[in-house]
Write a structure and sequence with these properties.
Four copies of one chain form a homotetramer. Chain A is mainly alpha-helical. The first copy, chain A, has ten helices and three strands. Chain A is about 65% helix and about 5% strand. In chain A, strands 1-2-3 form a three-stranded antiparallel β-sheet, covered by helices on one side. The radius of gyration of chain A is 19 Å and the shape is elongated. Chain A binds a DNA duplex (21 and 21 nucleotides) through α4. Chains A, B, C, D: It holds the Pfam family TetR_C_24.
Chain lengths: ~230, ~230, ~230, ~230
Amino acid sequence: MIDSAWASFYNDNVMYLGEVMIIYSRENEISTDSQNKRQQILEAAYVVFSRKGFHRATVDEIIALADTGKGTVYNYFVNKEQLFYTLIKERSTPFEQILSEIAKTGLPPLDKIRAMVKVFLQFYSDNADLWRVLMHELRGLGSEGYSSFSEEQQEKYQQRFRDTIGLLQVVFQEGITQGVIRECDTNRVAYGLFSVIVMMVFQHLVGDDVEATANEITSVFFYGVGQ
Amino acid sequence: MIDSAWASFYNDNVMYLGEVMIIYSRENEISTDSQNKRQQILEAAYVVFSRKGFHRATVDEIIALADTGKGTVYNYFVNKEQLFYTLIKERSTPFEQILSEIAKTGLPPLDKIRAMVKVFLQFYSDNADLWRVLMHELRGLGSEGYSSFSEEQQEKYQQRFRDTIGLLQVVFQEGITQGVIRECDTNRVAYGLFSVIVMMVFQHLVGDDVEATANEITSVFFYGVGQ
Amino acid sequence: MIDSAWASFYNDNVMYLGEVMIIYSRENEISTDSQNKRQQILEAAYVVFSRKGFHRATVDEIIALADTGKGTVYNYFVNKEQLFYTLIKERSTPFEQILSEIAKTGLPPLDKIRAMVKVFLQFYSDNADLWRVLMHELRGLGSEGYSSFSEEQQEKYQQRFRDTIGLLQVVFQEGITQGVIRECDTNRVAYGLFSVIVMMVFQHLVGDDVEATANEITSVFFYGVGQ
Amino acid sequence: MIDSAWASFYNDNVMYLGEVMIIYSRENEISTDSQNKRQQILEAAYVVFSRKGFHRATVDEIIALADTGKGTVYNYFVNKEQLFYTLIKERSTPFEQILSEIAKTGLPPLDKIRAMVKVFLQFYSDNADLWRVLMHELRGLGSEGYSSFSEEQQEKYQQRFRDTIGLLQVVFQEGITQGVIRECDTNRVAYGLFSVIVMMVFQHLVGDDVEATANEITSVFFYGVGQ
DNA sequence: GATGAATGAGTATTCATTCAT
DNA sequence: TATGAATGAATACTCATTCAT
């Protein structure tokens, strides 16, 4: 069975797509001693932001957890906002890299989508709390702005999302070209698929078997729920 | 054509589903003189909350627009949070009523779903700004809480959403029973459909012809994008 | 003797120039009950600013002395800077009015200057502490700005000083026209006279007899220290 | 003409008063290699303090300009305050020496004053920015202290000013004794003259021809503006 | 019922100084 | 000597809510 053949494996640095091994590097992987405090702060920030959200997370709480002085935070990060952004960037970069790798393989479009959905589910499940916070802040898109983030920063995040969803869209287009997907508005479909993934994660509807959930989502998108 | 037969019409108080007219009442519809101030406040609050979000909307701005005193707000509403809730409740009640009415009709499940999707799209499009704000605040679900809302209040909102999505789920179940929809996790599917609707609205992917968009969404859900 | 004829009297509201009585009004003179807190804050601010300077004066200290809440300060004044400005404005307005009145009288230029110098000495002696603070902040004139004040606010203050010194200049010009003062750069002379007045006050070189000091300063300016 | 005979010349190390050449030494003039960093820091500090004032000048900015490490600053100077003081002291010492030399010459008092006024004007014009900053900080004299300087440090500066102005006072007294200046409060007159000099410099009222301005100031002080 | 003056809790950021290497 | 990572004290301002009139 093709489906079962996809015994892929995912961790922070390597991902197997069948026999194809995709390796990706992480920024700041090597923590020199001088980067010690920086890492402590990032880890503490991850915890506090995840728990409290951006606005209600206080720098005081972060430094208490990081066991560092307040000034140290500002030696490494220009402000609270950029500290949060660093957290997001460092985590999403390898994720975006994998998605991009998958999109570039020669796999059939349906298999690509299935693989990508799985990566999405896995990544958002792993980082649910922090991404929930991020999306919370990004809801202000287009409105006069009720986010805690600056306009420029928001735009950066939005662009990351657009790029990521764009990867899905390209594969859908590929499917149409190859005749395995019917003519449709690929932008809408990509956003639709993305929204379902996010909803499954945030509503805790992803089972322990991520692959099964990915297959189900993909299946509904391809074949519908109709009999 | 059955589809084209669905020339439904929607306004604040009446909705036509083909020939069936569904009438629903609104709370506080009759503004006695003494309810005058209350209405002015609600209307001003709608504008300010929609524009600024919950956190950044100030009571000062609301009373300036409502042309009333600050104390008056607290005569009618226990606090800013409950003022917001009242706004949501008054607007969603008729909407939920219509959905409920549709669910109760004897229409085939697929037609029900299609009609419901259309009502969803129409309602969220009409109230996009305020509901964006609401959903912004509800992202905190489950976490220690980074919402501006109290736990209790959040639960109330969540319950409304669950009930509404539950209506979709029931119809999916109906479809399975009637053999027009294949076996699936109706809860997941209902949430999936809901998430797509919301995403389309908030990403401005709903065209001028709401019915067409509703049909497209429904179509993908039933028949998939596969060839 | 003309000099001794100048038995002028100065208090907050009335000034006698020989037989001529000059009356001037003060803003906010009538403290209604509702202006009570405002006055308390202004009085406390006067004390704290005089004692600590602008930068080192804290709002906390002001409210402690005014026996009021922090928010109340911000109900009456947009910020600390504008609170300070209000203090200066309310005090300098009557002072500037008197100077202006003197400049408009038909007195001989030398007598005008003498009278004005006296008013200057009296006013700056009465308000030495606060004006020392003001001038402290204004020293940044022209430089990239090391004042605590905003550019706009600084310009307002500077303009007040320029206008005031301008009154002296006009009288000097008058004296030249009338042939009692020799041709000279009236701008420089006016600034020179002003600087001497300020220096006398801030170095505590003004004796108890303000009139005598005024006469001495005027005398040196008119006749020099030469034998 | 005696006046025109005073073709004095002023630079950092030598000053000519007519035929009399006054030479003065500078501290730390010889920069050994080990004094290299110290000089770099002083020069950078001069620039930054002049531009930003004492409070807004940061050690970070100074070390960036001096191309040195932060700790190095504290190897040579106990703190920011003493760094500033060193700057002032090194620059004012030769200036005070010249004034002192002039005061000691056998010139007539009026000529001495005229020469001293010129030196004052020249020196403060050359160092306007830094001295503006110094005087900015010294305004706190006598008050609880709103200066960035410590009480002790302020007293040191004040003493320098007092000593310098004292030189003027001595010459005035000399003039009185010699009968060329009328009886007057020499302390007040010296401070008055000093204040005029400073005001002229800071208000940019000193023309290109410093000597002419010096003559004009002296002239007004001796003969008055009266006709 | 309507009003609005009074209140105070809550928080990000800067920068001089230290001290281990 | 030279360095620079780590530190923490210090402070203005907003805005929902109350309550006396």
